[in-house]
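User:
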Amino acid sequence: MMIIEPTGSACGAVVKGIDLNNQVSNSKMGKLVWALYEHRCLVIKNQKLTKESYYKFASEWGELIKHVLDYLRMPDYPEMMAIGNTEEKDKDDAVRNGAAVWHTDGSYIEDPTTVTMLYAVHVPKNGGETLVADMVAAYEDLDPYLKDELEKLTAKHYYGRAQFDPDEHRPVPIRTQQQATTNAVCEKPLVLTHPVAGHKALYAVAHSPFGINGKTKEETLSLLAKLKAHATQSKFIYSHRYEVGDILLFDNLSTMHRAKEQTDAAKTPDSDNARLLWRLSAKGIPNIIKNSTHSKNITT
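Assistant: Predicted structure:
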């Protein structure tokens, strides 16, 4: 029997009693989707998946996306990426720690990424956490006057063009002209209303925003820094310490996230510091929602 329980932290819920190698019923899929929207992120425990079965499950959450940085893609599954420190590419600190920065997946894409999931294949004995910030709670905690101002504002986004804090790494680098021109500058609201759940959240105030329409550069930098500092307070953050077989999913329209720094590349996949996560991201809405009347009472 599938059980979903809150983490007891700022956000998130833990899911037990489901084997994703088997077909997930509509009833269970509906419960997972609405649990994600309610809790912002989910941790599905004790999975033993092949790339094929993982890909099949991820496809239920929307249209899977190929990352703009094509050198990170898996050759056999181009929508999937190996995140961590176990591969040759991960010897480069810029790649290995390119996610150790607050960000919202796909915020720099016109049609944004909605869901990301990370499947833990290898986990280090120490460290390796992913931090998830609840941007709904962060929005609700703002002063009313600031909420009113923000709801009228839009920001310009481009991959990696935001300002970064001293404890952050730069995003994984763009290396070709094709990668640089795949996604043009786009505009997004600073407050986003969730297209399915209906709640409001601060949206993508780190990594990609570099200009706020109607604001000077100085005003933009000041406001974005204020919002980022507010949203990344510990009271809004769930820190996930992986166990092998975990799948961490997060709703990109309601969260930001970052990795903890990985100091060294692993010598072998069995090294004590080895970290390997299979990453898949989707855009659009889950199939169970698309094929229903958007009701929370999905029972068929």
